[in-house]
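We were asked to recover a plausible sequence for a given structure. The inputs and outputs are reproduced exactly as logged, with field labels preserved.

PROBLEM: sequence recovery
POSITIONS: 331
GIVEN STRUCTURE:
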């Protein structure tokens, strides 16, 4: 009797909202043994004595389908009694932790304090929330994104929430990235031959994806893996679907265009997914030796998420070789 070959696995690298939407779409068409989602932890911080992991939680809540769609973060049906009471006591309320969401941070902080690592904590939270697809943090060690601005260097949540992304961005650095060990399961997948593709979700390239790519040996392992690497543009018609990516690009002197996202990833990627409204950029990106696919990338409904996931997988199926490296070396 011939033994069936194990199903190939897709590795999805994700930040918050946009990445989580595609991850949900992928989870609807792939079995748990065919998909692993890696979340950025550069946005993590310690606040009110608690360990907060915003992107992990956004991915987790989205896959559990309990996410707050209006806010784009936190839990659906949230109440804010604790924040109101904290305000009355003169406490810090600029970063709003909902009453239900607080339970996640309390449980994460308790488990971390008892010696469980962030991967173990995330696995436990996912199990309790009934999530069957593996979600892993990019590292069990702390990495903290800092934004260099005209108002000085700001910790990511200070920039993003407290300052509402108003300061002008001059650059980024990731505290702790040199010593942080990339998550072992992610590295095992990148070193093995099980991967069908590495999917860079439509997340902010600078602050959501770059912290993952900047971990030791991650880029080399991606390049050495025979599976194609494809990215989906978070920029559509010169605007970020959500968040400050387009504003950051213009402040950094980079035109806010999807082609610049492809250029940012450069020879790391073999394929790039553009929104259909950016069809005009297709040949410019193809000239860099990158396969390009144009489709609707705006995910308003669950069907949009599933359709984009299907589209991405069939695009991957059409890339049968790692793209002409020679052309890409020119990037
Ligand atoms: N974003 C906000 O704009 N304001 C908030 O008060 C806020 C609270 C918050 C609490 C928990 C959590 O997991 C995320 C939260 N976010 C909030 C979102 C978060 O700052 C960003 O979406 C991500 O870090 C960027 O991906």
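RECOVERED SEQUENCE:
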């Amino acid at each position: 009797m011939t033994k069936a070959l194990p199903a190939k696995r897709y590795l999805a690298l994700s930040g918050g909202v946009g990445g989580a939407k595609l991850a949900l779409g992928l989870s609807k068409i792939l079995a748990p043994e065919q998909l692993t989602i890696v979340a950025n932890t550069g946005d993590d911080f310690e606040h009110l004595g608690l360990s907060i992991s915003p992107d992990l939680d956004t991915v987790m809540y989205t896959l559990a389908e309990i996410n707050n769609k209006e806010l784009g973060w936190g839990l659906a049906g949230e109440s804010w009694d604790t924040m109101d009471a904290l305000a009355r006591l003169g406490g810090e309320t600029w970063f709003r932790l909902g009453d239900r969401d607080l339970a996640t941070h309390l449980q994460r902080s308790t488990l971390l304090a008892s010696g469980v690592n962030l991967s173990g904590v995330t696995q436990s939270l996912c199990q309790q929330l009934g999530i069957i697809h593996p979600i892993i943090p990019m590292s069990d060690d702390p990495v903290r994104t800092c934004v260099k601005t005209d108002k000085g260097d700001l910790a990511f949540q200070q920039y993003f929430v407290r300052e509402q992304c108003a300061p002008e961005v001059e650059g980024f650095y990731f505290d702790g990235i040199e010593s942080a060990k990339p998550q072992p399961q992610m590295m095992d997948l990148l070193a093995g031959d099980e991967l069908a593709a590495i999917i860079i979700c439509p997340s902010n390239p600078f602050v959501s994806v770059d912290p993952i790519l900047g971990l030791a040996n991650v880029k080399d392992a991606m390049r050495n893996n025979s599976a194609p690497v494809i990215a989906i543009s978070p920029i559509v018609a010169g605007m970020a679907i959500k968040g400050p990516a387009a504003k950051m690009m213009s402040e950094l002197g980079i035109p806010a265009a999807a082609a610049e996202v492809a250029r940012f990833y450069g020879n790391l990627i073999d394929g790039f997914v553009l929104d259909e409204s950016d069809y005009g950029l297709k040949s410019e990106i193809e000239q860099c030796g990158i396969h390009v696919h144009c489709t609707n990338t705006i995910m308003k409904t669950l069907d949009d998420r599933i359709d984009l996931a299907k589209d991405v997988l069939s695009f991957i199926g059409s890339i049968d070789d790692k793209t002409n490296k020679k052309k890409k070396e020119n990037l």
